[in-house]
Amino acid sequence: MTAAAPEKTETFPPTHPALRAWVRDIADLTKPDRVVWCDGSDTEARGLTEALVQTGTLEPLARPGDYLARTDPGDVARVEERTFICSPDEADAGPTNNWMDPVEMRATMTALYDGCMRGRTMYIVPFCMGPLDAAEPKFGVEITDSAYVVLSMRTMTRMGAEVLAAMGEDAPFVRALHSVGAPLEPGEKDVPWPCNETKYITQFPATREIWSYGSGYGGNSLLGKKCYSLRIASVMGRDEGWLAEHMLILKLTSPQGSTHYIAAAFPSACGKTNLAMLEPTLPGWRVETLGDDIAWLRFGDDGRLYAINPEYGLFGVAPGTDWTTNPNAMRTLERGNTIYTNVARTPEGGVWWEGMGDAPAGLTDWHGEAWNGSAPAAHPNSRFCVPIRQCPILAPEYDDPRGVPISAILFGGRRRTTIPLVTEARDWAHGVFLGATLSSETTAAATGQVGVVRRDPMAMLPFIGYHAGDYFAHWINIGKNADAAALPKIFYVNWFRRGDDGRFLWPGFGENSRVLKWVVERLEGTGEAVETPIGLTPPAAAIDRTGLDLDEADVAAALRVDLDEWRAELPDLTEWFDRFGEKLPTVLWSELDALKVRLDG
Ligand code: GTP
Ligand code: MN
Ligand code: MN
């Protein structure tokens, strides 16, 4: 049977006429059996959870509030080839996005949406990205036919009756429509993970709308996250002078008590959640978390860039998360209230994934079958969805609508070769160059081949909602409009460089605190750096090795600038910049030319 929703139809109709009209239109189109306005209450969540357990979408686990979802095997990650930026003018989508004419896309998707919620409940989820008490709260309303999405949005965003009340009669909001695309005939039995082979993840930037169809997977269905907070918000940021970025935010306190806020952009599954919750191995250093995936940065009155985390929960990669790598994530999860998706399950109702030590006996794999060890037990892109408030090192400022002043921005990728452990940009424009040319090996976070090196500018390749050349220009302009001394310093890191034996040259995780320490020393004017053709790098001796089982030569290997590797990179860099044609800011061409000269010198 269909997921029985709490018996409640328009129990608290909002006073917002535009919202009401939109909801009516969508209900007329999608033809659900029931319409439910979500209030975000515990009672509502309990009812939805029970209904999802009945349909087999969720399985209760041992810890209170913990549930396991297993997706359809074809619905496990973001689908970049099915993601569209439908700007009125194709040129505005640029060379890095799929584009379709918005009129045509609306026609195609309207046909798909016609009757797509038959036999199901249509949920209306009012949400706010960022604090509700912000000067201009960023509202959204997601209409979805998935109770799994409602529960996940409840964790990932500030959502429910309070938001609706704050929207009043006329607050602007992002319209976010989602359907799994699986209507039910009368009497038809539902499947645990309804979805459709046809998938569309569509952004209409001009009208700030999102239409998603066919997928229940987080990045495709929790529309407050990538679709709103990155793709749509990047367009808002372009128009309004701020930045929406794929960045974690952390607070770092030194043994002397000096505090810096650091933002870092790494591509999906390249270490943001891990760095955000870092447990420093260097004594006396302390990290607190503000965000692990998305940051909105805007100038404060003092000319500094302030960051907020628009999200309210953590949607983290499970594999690789363990007491040794990310103890603070483990402590966050120990507190329960987590929806796991596509992890393995122990006979006792616990969870397990690759990277969590030896596999216990009797595992059920992510397909729901007894695990025989021939393939990963947990899907490589399996995830946990947990309230950020459960993070034991959450910085109290995470909820401050003014945000926190950023001292340093780190860009980073997953590269076996070429990219040193850490490089400091000479200035803002050089930093933008490092970000614009960021490269990384692809991961399981998106469908497609894994391990292929691709350019992923600012770790935003799948998330820039407009022409990437204009996006680079926007970054350059942010620097032009600011006092250079107030701007964050920019660094480029790579935790993933390997030696000839294939092993990581740098131990990573908590040991990354040693790199952060050098970053802070650079900010405070005490750190040593040497000029190289690609930027400033620390001499190996400048990385604190107290208590570390590596000698200076090992650190030097991780830091090495290999000129031949860099020269080999140049043709691809040129080809990359050529893709943006006229739109590429000339300062970035100048940066590339200067790099060529330095490498040939
Ligand atoms: P999204 O949430 O998809 O945007 O990814 P993310 O950037 O938050 O990635 P996450 O922190 O979840 O890390 C993904 C993978 O990278 C995990 O398998 C980690 O174990 C691994 N990883 C993270 N930090 C390090 C590190 O310092 N060194 C090494 N070798 N691996 C790391
Ligand atoms: Mn991400
Ligand atoms: Mn993450």
Automatic annotation (TrEMBL):
Binding site for GTP: A269, C270, G271, K272, T273, N274, R383, R414, F509, G510, E511, N512
This enzyme's EC code(s): 4.1.1.32
Catalytic activity: oxaloacetate + GTP = phosphoenolpyruvate + GDP + CO2
Coiled coil: none
Domain Phosphoenolpyruvate carboxykinase C-terminal P-loop: 242-597
Manner of cofactor binding, per the entry note: Binds 1 Mn(2+) ion per subunit.
Residues reported to bind substrate: R78, Y217, G218, G219, S268, N381, S382, R383
Protein family (similarity comment): Belongs to the phosphoenolpyruvate carboxykinase [GTP] family.
NCBIfam families: PRK04210.1 (NF003253)
Subunit structure of this chain's protein: Monomer.
Name this polypeptide is given: Phosphoenolpyruvate carboxykinase [GTP]
Gene name tied to this protein: pckG
